[in-house]
Specification:
Blueprint lengths: L4 H12 L7 E8 L5 H14 L6 E6 L2 E5 L5 E6 L2 H12 L11 E8 L3 E9 L5 H20 L11 H7 L8 H7 L2 H4 L18 E7 L10 H17 L3 E8 L5 H5 L6 E8 L6 H17 L4 H7 L1 H6 L6 E5 L5 E2 L2 E8 L5 E8 L3 E8 L6 H20 L13 H11 L16 E2 L1 H7 L6 E6 L2 E2 L6 E7 L2 E12 L2 E7 L4 E3 L2 E3 L1 H9 L4 E5 L4 E6 L6 H11 L4 E5 L1
Parallel strand pairs: 4-5, 8-10, 10-13, 24-25
Antiparallel strand pairs: 1-6, 1-12, 2-3, 5-6, 7-14, 8-9, 11-12, 13-14, 15-20, 16-17, 16-18, 18-19, 19-20, 21-22, 23-24
Helix pairs in contact: 2-4, 8-10, 8-13, 14-16
Length: 565
């Protein structure tokens, strides 16, 4: 049996890391009440027979020769003294890799935790199951269990067959290099950073995960709320990197035919989408841009691995997109008395942002990070910052994004305290953050009325929509004001203090962090932001200046230079 086009890459990837569990997906469905153990086990056993993809094994006969072996996923039953014991067992299952030896790439377990909680666990290789598969499995067990507990006959099988699904499969289309190069900004993507992290890496056996919840009043009343969430993630990425665009990997289910919608299998794909965010765009505008780009990309039916091979800019950048975003509306909601939890999402090369839950109540925001690229602290920082951003922009998707701050109130307070007495604080006449301003107002705010004003990024004139450092020049010389402003076709927009955040090539630098790192060295220092961000250290007579400089330089974020006075 030949593998589906959507399965091949995930199944072949296991060869590169045969002992890695990075390709595992793990899902638990909990019943809302006290479950009947016999009825639960019988329902799970029926599910194992009907969900053919979970019983598939794989044999690799050669490069590109992936052969599937039919089988039935094994079923077990386990009991646990408490939730801690269950979590330990689940972690062990999650970290156990599958083998390309023909044995089933999925297994199911009916579980009972002391105290009256019961459910079932699905552990599968991502090559045979995806998130939509989880939805099908839970819905089927819900109806099987309801029948088993009432003595009714088992409802007819609702799943499609894997053979029928395979018969519908279409070959991959040739890669249109011009379409993808233009659509993804490939003419400029090489050599720039499009990821929240630094560098590239293969999927790690374990990920760093952080999770939180938000409540957005009125979100459920907007039918296109998943697009708004993806658009907000794109805007966050662009803002964090200091760019006017973002290139996301958007997870799509690829379920349009009856066979696709009814058959458990791995059909999902990740479509790279570039979203350009204009200075006056609202979240609704960005959602429209993203939806149009996603629709155009999906029509091409190209696999990510084919794009990586065909597009020169992807070779140079080492990636097609930045963060992956996956909106899963059904996850976290109750289906027939069953609620789903996911313990492993499959391979994560960089970072994946998953938003799930019921918009009528609250949304769960889960971020999974490759630990080779992100620390646990960075994971938590992005989770907290993104969650705050989502809450602010989703509340009013018709508001211009450039007036919504990225920093939290707590961060602004910390940065202001670290900056100390601020000679760079604007005068009372300065405009408010995000409001239109003029060169004359900025010069007056800096205490140099009538001076010539320039707005630069890295020493060059700031492009439209991107915040730059404001400097003023007159007969008394040139002064770095410590203010930020963004040029637009209509004029300037005030973007706050340089003590908050300074653009540097490829991103931003938080000056609060810079000052905190320099301050830990225990010597006097000065931070300047004229051409990039530079820290000057003034060591005392008994200090090892070179060692201090190396210590501070190693702790600084990228884009900061350190020198000795």
């Amino acid at each position: 049996m030949h593998a589906l086009l959507s399965q091949k890459a995930l199944l072949e990837a296991q060869l590169a890391q045969p002992d890695s569990p990075a390709w595992n997906i793990v899902m638990t469905a909990w019943y809302s009440g006290a479950a009947d153990p016999t009825a639960l086990l019988r329902s799970v056993e029926t599910l194992a027979v009907e969900a053919e993809s979970l019983g598939l094994g794989v044999l690799i006969d050669g490069p590109g020769e992936v052969r599937l072996v039919p089988g039935v996923a094994p079923v077990a039953e386990r009991r646990f003294a408490d939730r801690t014991e269950f979590e330990a067992w689940l972690a062990a299952e999650r970290n156990r890799p599958f083998r390309a030896d023909g044995t089933p790439l999925g297994h199911l377990t009916a579980v009972h935790v002391a105290g009256g909680r019961s459910g079932f666990v699905v552990v599968a290789h991502h090559g045979v199951a995806d998130g939509y598969t989880g939805r099908l499995l839970v819905a089927r067990v819900a109806e099987l269990y309801a029948a088993a507990t009432t003595g009714a006959a088992a409802p007819p099988r609702t799943f499609g067959t894997f053979a029928a699904l395979a018969a519908e499969g279409a070959p991959a289309e040739p890669v249109d290099v011009d379409f993808w190069t233009t659509g993804l900004g490939g003419d400029v993507v090489a050599g720039r950073e499009i990821s929240l992290g630094r560098g590239i890496a293969v999927p790690a056996p374990r990920v760093v995960e952080a999770q939180t919840r938000i409540r957005v009043p009125g979100l459920a009343d907007r039918p296109h709320w998943p697009a708004l969430v993806m658009a907000a993630t794109a805007a966050y990425t662009a803002r964090f990197l200091g760019r006017d665009d973002a290139v996301l990997g958007v997870v799509v289910a690829n379920r349009s035919t009856t066979a696709e919608r009814s058959t458990p299998a791995q059909l999902m794909s990740v479509v790279p989408v570039r979203v350009v965010i204009d200075s006056e765009d609202t979240l609704d505008d960005v959602a429209e841009h993203l939806t149009d780009g996603l629709a155009a990309g999906r029509k091409r039916r190209n696999r990510a691995e084919d794009l990586m091979s065909a597009l020169p800019f992807a070779w140079r950048a080492g990636r097609l997109h930045g963060p992956t975003v996956n909106v899963v509306p059904f996850l976290g909601t109750t289906v027939g008395g069953w609620t789903t939890e996911v313990a492993a999402w499959g391979p994560v090369e960089d970072c994946m942002i998953i938003v799930s839950g019921d918009p009528d109540t609250d949304l769960c925001v889960t971020l999974t990070f490759n630990p080779d690229l992100y620390s646990a602290a960075e994971a938590r920082e992005h989770t907290d910052r993104l969650t705050g951003w989502l809450g602010r922009v989703l509340t009013d998707p018709g508001r211009r994004l450039d007036v919504v701050g990225l920093l939290t109130d707590d961060e602004r307070a910390v940065h202001a305290a670290l900056a100390g007495p601020a000679a760079t604080d604007p005068a009372p006449s300065a405009p408010r953050w995000g409001e239109p301003t003029t060169a004359a107002d900025l010069a007056a705010a800096a205490g140099r009325p009538g001076a010539r004003v320039t707005v630069t990024v890295g020493g060059f004139d700031a492009p439209f929509g991107r915040p730059g450092v404001v400097t003023v020049s007159d007969g008394a010389g040139t002064v770095d004001t410590g203010l930020l402003a963004a040029p637009t076709p209509e004029g300037l927009v005030f973007r706050g203090l340089a003590t908050d955040r300074v653009p540097v090539p490829g991103g931003y630098v938080e000056l609060g962090e810079v000052r905190a790192v320099a301050g830990r060295a225990g010597v006097e220092f000065e931070v300047s932001v004229r051409r990039g961000v530079r820290v000057t250290l003034y060591p005392g007579a008994g200090d090892d200046g070179r060692a201090l400089a190396e210590q501070v330089r190693a702790a600084m974020p990228p884009g900061v230079s350190v020198r000795l006075a």
